[in-house]
């Protein structure tokens, strides 16, 4: 199974290199449009509709609030972690500068 994943992981860089070498670097981004169209067509064709026709069309307010709080917390955590890392690297650089 690992060998299969390794081979599939190698397709992206090889295809990107081919497109850049024989075309333009912009072509590497256009391949995503073709892949998206194929995936959308396959999804429409093979995934059955799962909508509950008897359910009301109301918004899940508790779920929306929970998602907002969770995503905000995740963003804030990574933002502050990056800030602390930059601040610590500046402190480490000053320590190294004084040692030299």
In short:
With 100 residues, the chain is mainly alpha-helical. 80% of the residues lie in helices and 0% in strands.
Describe this entry's structure for a reader.
- With 100 residues, this protein is mainly alpha-helical.
- The chain has two domains: 1-48, no CATH class; 61-100.
- The protein is 80% helix and 0% strand.
- The longest helix has 39 residues, at 61-99.
- Residues 91-100 have low confidence and may be disordered.
SSE map:
Blueprint: H1 2-22, H2 27-46, H3 61-99
Tell me the span between the first and last alpha carbons. Answer: 51 Å
* Main β sheet profile: none
> What string gives the helices and strands in order?
HHH
Helix content percent band: over 70%
Q: What is the count of DSSP helices, taking H or I runs of 4+ residues? A: 3
Q: Strand fraction band? A: under 5%
Uncertain residue segments: 91-100
Whole-number total of structural domains: 2
Backbone structural class: mainly alpha
Jot down its keywords.
single chain, 100 residues, mainly alpha, 2 domains, 3 helices, disordered C terminus
